[in-house]
């Protein structure tokens, strides 16, 4: 996708959903399009699928231009599979018929016996792939939410598309099932090396599932890279805050040499990657701050227990707020006096 724009008429002003988006999808991998509601990620997915046309720019799928100046390939001709938020299975069809829906559309009455067998074998293969063998005769209403999403994935994969588009496919599931199913889907897609694009607003989902993450904001891709890259090296404070918990500390840059800055801040004089300094603000992650026997004095303001770990909100003597994460069993008492230091920086 190169230079793609899309504007929708609206009042009092038009909505610029996409503003010159450039995006490369990892071949054989999973790319997550991450962003808040209204950032343009759904419009991007619709343009990839062929449900909408870009105003300008070019979309290339599997080496073929499917949208661009003078070119528009219809959705059914793009070799794209789609998994919607809630599966969107046909309730009046069996599971087997749902999976077979996207296969070559020769009328069943006109099919030769060999074609029927091949079709049935493909359906069985897909059921086996998503871990639901023997479910072909059931109706969607007889399946759990997680099972319905597995069948939706099987239906999308059945025609062997060049790319699978996943439109927040786990958002309607409860938390525990969501985690389990997304891990199953990740392993399945990696096992068959299918190129996939996942649209999500869930940071944990994007970082844990994807091989490549593109962060969108206001119709633009503001940062793209591996999950490790975008988390460790956010493009700006807003990207840092959206990609995970962040701590912003005022600072003064003393020196900047070969990608490493020396800064003076409420935590002392620190050597940090230059990319973590944005003007007069140092952006850290909570895990880069720890309680210690010596360092900068602070008072515990709030604690939050999450089981395996806990969040501690601190207030330095100069009023600077900080957050850090530690093991849940080690949470200090509120109003306790502690010392903190920054770790694992440059």
TrEMBL record:
Domain annotation ABC transporter: ranges: 1-243
Keyword presence, Ion transport: yes
Documented EC number(s): 7.6.2.9
Molecular functions per Gene Ontology: ABC-type ferric iron transporter activity; ABC-type quaternary ammonium compound transporting activity; ATP binding; ATP hydrolysis activity
InterPro entries: AAA+_ATPase (IPR003593), ABC_SmlMolc_Importer (IPR050093), ABC_transporter-like_ATP-bd (IPR003439), ABC_transporter-like_CS (IPR017871), ABC_transpr_FbpC (IPR015853), Mo/tungstate-bd_C_term_dom (IPR008995), P-loop_NTPase (IPR027417), Transp-assoc_OB_typ2 (IPR013611)
Keywords linked to the UniProt accession: ATP-binding, Cell membrane, Ion transport, Iron, Iron transport, Membrane, Nucleotide-binding, Transport
Keyword Ribonucleoprotein attributed: no
Any matching Pfam family: ABC_tran
Name of the molecule in the record: ABC-type quaternary amine transporter
Organism (species): Gordonia phthalatica
């Amino acid at each position: 996708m190169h230079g793609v724009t899309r504007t929708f008429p609206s009042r009092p002003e038009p909505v610029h959903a996409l503003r010159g988006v450039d995006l490369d999808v990892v071949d054989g991998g999973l790319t997550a399009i991450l962003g808040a509601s209204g950032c343009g990620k759904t419009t991007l997915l619709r343009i990839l699928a062929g449900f909408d046309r870009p105003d300008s720019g070019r979309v290339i799928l599997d080496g073929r231009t499917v949208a661009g100046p003078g070119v528009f390939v219809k959705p059914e001709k793009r070799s794209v599979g789609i998994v919607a938020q809630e599966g969107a299975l046909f309730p009046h069809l069996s599971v087997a018929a749902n999976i077979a829906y996207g296969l070559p559309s020769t009328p069943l009455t006109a099919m030769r016996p060999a074609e029927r067998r091949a079709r049935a074998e493909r359906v069985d293969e897909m059921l086996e792939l998503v871990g639901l063998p023997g479910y072909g005769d059931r109706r969607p209403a007889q399946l759990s939410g997680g099972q319905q999403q597995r069948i939706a994935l099987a239906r999308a994969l059945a025609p062997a598309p060049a790319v699978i588009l996943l439109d927040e496919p786990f958002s309607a599931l409860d938390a525990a099932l969501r985690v389990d199913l997304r891990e199953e889907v990740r392993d399945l897609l990696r096992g068959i090396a299918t190129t996939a694009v996942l649209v999500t607003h869930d940071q944990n989902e994007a970082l844990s599932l994807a091989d490549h993450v593109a962060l969108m904001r206001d119709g633009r891709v503001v940062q793209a890279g591996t999950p490790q890259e975008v988390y460790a090296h956010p493009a700006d404070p807003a990207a840092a805050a959206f990609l995970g918990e962040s701590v912003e500390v005022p600072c003064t840059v003393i020196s900047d040499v070969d990608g490493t800055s020396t800064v003076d801040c409420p935590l002392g004089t620190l050597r940090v990657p230059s990319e973590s300094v944005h003007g007069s603000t140092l952006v850290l992650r909570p895990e880069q701050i720890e309680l210690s026997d010596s360092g900068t004095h602070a008072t515990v303001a709030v604690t939050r227990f999450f089981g395996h770990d806990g969040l501690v909100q601190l207030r330095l003597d100069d009023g600077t707020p900080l957050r850090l994460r530690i093991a849940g069993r080690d949470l200090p008492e509120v109003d306790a006096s502690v010392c903190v230091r920054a770790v694992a920086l440059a």
